[in-house]
Design a protein that fits this description.
The chain is an alpha+beta fold. It has two domains: 146 residues, no CATH class; 69 residues. 20% of the residues lie in helices and 31% in strands. The protein is built from five helices and twelve strands. A four-stranded mixed beta sheet has the order 1-5-6-12, with no helix packed on it. The two termini are 35 Å apart.
Length: 244
């Protein structure tokens, strides 16, 4: 199987600072020290590079880590990805991101890539975007950004619940697998529906049914967008700078 290339679309970075980081920790940066945008500005002043927590010393494993780099503030930036066969099952897996930064090349004369650092790939996902926008990122414990939520259920009594209450299969993994439930419900309705399912289990079947209410935070919506994607345990990030 050969490598495949696909266009993921474009984004903008009006602050002139672009960050790739672990989505599950983007909203935690203010708790770990200076805000993400301030930290990014410092490292970008020296050519871009790796951000981590704590700011001084060795990075904490699987916490706040990101890559920050300068980008043109006044033009769309194309983002693409390359997929290669997984070493585990041979299926296509995202391995490289290509990002146009819209700036003149300032690296080696031969145009070879500049190493910015290494990132772990979090199961909560990776996020690429304007650093000032990410200062306002809403994580798993935040409020719904649109007043909506998703309800899912699974477990020992899933079929019995489906027969009585309904709910569509929600594919959260390749192959169409996933729990049943309802998407895009008003938050109050989602909470009430989950309570009915939990009461049904508590008053009858007993333990064995799992119910989740996921408010539409930024993190959850990113996870939804990636339900059908496959990711490796490590991620190679190649940044391409083009003349604006």
């Amino acid at each position: 199987m050969t490598d495949s290339v696909a266009d993921l679309g474009t984004l903008s970075a009006p602050s002139g600072m672009l960050v790739l980081g672990m989505a599950g920790w983007i909203d935690f940066w203010p708790h770990a020290g200076r805000p993400l945008s301030e930290r990014a500005r410092t490292v970008i002043a020296t050519g871009g590079g790796h951000l981590h927590s704590p700011e001084e010393g060795e990075p904490s494993t699987w916490m706040c880590e990101a890559i920050a780099v300068a980008a043109a503030p006044d033009c769309p930036l194309r983002v693409g990805r390359r997929a290669t066969p997984s070493p585990f099952d041979g299926k296509p897996t995202i391995a490289v991101l290509d990002v146009e930064l819209g700036l003149p090349w300032t690296g080696p004369d031969d145009g070879s890539p500049v190493r910015l650092g290494d990132l772990p790939v979090a199961r909560c996902g990776m996020i690429l975007g304007d650093v000032r926008a990410l200062d306002g990122f809403i994580g798993s414990d935040g409020e719904s950004t649109d007043g909506l939520a998703d309800v899912t259920y699974w477990g020992k009594y899933e079929d019995a619940v489906h027969a009585q209450f309904g709910g569509e299969r929600i594919p959260q993994r390749s192959g169409g697998h996933g729990p049943r439930g309802w998407l895009d419900l008003p938050l109050a309705e989602a909470q009430a529906r989950a309570e009915r399912l939990e009461a049904w289990a508590r008053n009858g079947a007993g333990n064995g049914l799992m119910v989740s209410v996921d408010a539409h935070t930024d993190l959850h919506r990113i996870n939804r967008a990636g339900w059908t994607l496959r990711v490796p345990e490590t991620l190679s990030v190649q940044v391409t700078l083009l003349t604006a």
